[in-house]
Amino acid sequence: MANLPSWLVESRENALKTQEWNNLTTNIYDAVDQHLAQSHVQYFTDLSDAEKSLVLERAAKSLKGTTNGGPTPYDNLNKRVSDLLDKGVNNDVSRSLMTDDPLETKTDIILNKVCEGIIALLRKWPDQKYKLHAFLNQSLPQPVRFVGWNLYLSNINYRQKFINDLGNNPRSVLSPMDAEIQRNCDSLVRTLPVAPDMMDSKGNMSAMKAILSYYHSMFSNKRDLADSEYYYVIPIVLSHNPPLSR
User: Fold this and answer.
1) CB 114 within 8 A of CB 45
2) Would you list the DSSP string of 179-228?
3) 120 occurs within a structural domain
4) Per its UniProt entry, which superkingdom is the organism in (predicted)?
5) Distance CA 120, CA 1 (A)
6) Contact criterion met (CB below 8 Å) for 206 and 161
7) Contacts for 64-68 with beta carbons within 8 Å, 24 or more apart?
C-alpha cells in the first residue's frame, strides 16, 4: 500500500482482522456460490474477467438488503471501519503532538491528515472518484478540490494536443483576441468576491487568460467569449494545489 498514510494502512490491516470483515466475506462467498450454481458454472475461475465482475456485483447487491430491517453485513463493516479510521487518525495525531510542536490545533491537524488520506486513495484508485458525492454541498479543502477537478476534467488527448501545438508553434495557442481576453479577465475579476484571491496572484491571472485564450483559439467563428465562460475558469484556477505563484 505504497504512498498511503501509515494510519490509513494500519486501519485497513485492522479492518481485515475484524469479525465484521469475516462475516461479510463469508456472505459474499456464499452468494457467489449460489450465483454460480444458478448459472450452472462449476468454478469461479472458469469465468471471464467481465463475468467475474458481474457475478461479484450481483452477489454484493444481494447482501445490501435485509428481510427484518436490521443492519446488513455491509452496515456492520462500515461502522467498524469508521471506528477504526477515527481511532487510527487520532492516534497518529497524538503521536505527532508528542514529538512535534505544531502551530495548528489538533482539529486542524486531523482534517489535514484526513485530507491527505482522501487524496492518496483517489490517486491510487481514481475510478473511485464517484464517491466524492459524499461531499455534495460541502466545502472541500483545496488539495481535494484540485484532485477532484483533475480526475473529472483531465483529458490526456487534449493535454497532448496542447503540448504539441505549443511545441510546434507557440503562437497557435493564443487567440487573435488575446489582449482583449486579458483586459476582460482583469475587468470581470474585479467585480467578484474572489477578486483578492485572483488579482493578488500573477500566476492565477496568467493561468486564467492562458486557458481562455487557448480555448478561444480553437473556435472556428472566433465569436466573443461569454461572461459565463470566464466564470467557469475561476474555480479551476483557484483549486490548483499548490497555489499558483504570486
Assistant:
1) no
2) HHHHHHHHHHHTTSTTHHHHHT-HHHHHHHHHHHHHHHHT-SS-PPPPHH
3) no
4) Eukaryota
5) 10
6) no
7) none
Contact 88, 10 (CB under 8 A): yes
Distance, CA of 21 to CA of 106 (rounded, Å): 31
Rounded to 5 degrees, what angle do the CA atoms 159, 188, 233 make?
20
In this structure, of 87-96, 113-122, 191-200, 204-213, the range with the lowest mean pLDDT score is 191-200
Domain endpoint, select from 74, 101, 128: 101
Final residue before a domain boundary, out of 101, 120, 138 = 101
**Helical H runs in 39-177?**
49-62, 73-99, 106-124, 142-153, 156-168
Give the predicted TM-score (pTM) of the model.
0.73
Query: Mean pLDDT throughout 20-32?
Result: 90
Q: Which residue has the cell 465569436?
A: 223
In this structure, is residue 147 part of a structural domain?
no
Report if residue 244 sits inside a domain.
Answer: no
| Number of domains observed in the structure of the chain | 2
Residue written as grid cell 467578484: 192
pLDDT at 244 > cutoff 80: no
What's the CA gap between 73 and 84, in Å, rounded? Answer: 16
Asked if residue 68 has pLDDT above 90, the reply is no
Domain coverage including residue 77: 6-101
Please check whether residues 13 and 83 belong to one and the same domain.
yes
Query: What pLDDT was estimated at residue 77?
Result: 92
The pair phi, psi for residue 17, each rounded to 5°, is: -95, 0
Amino acid in the structure at residue 120: A
CA distance 51 to 59: 12
Q: What is the mean pLDDT of the chain?
A: 87
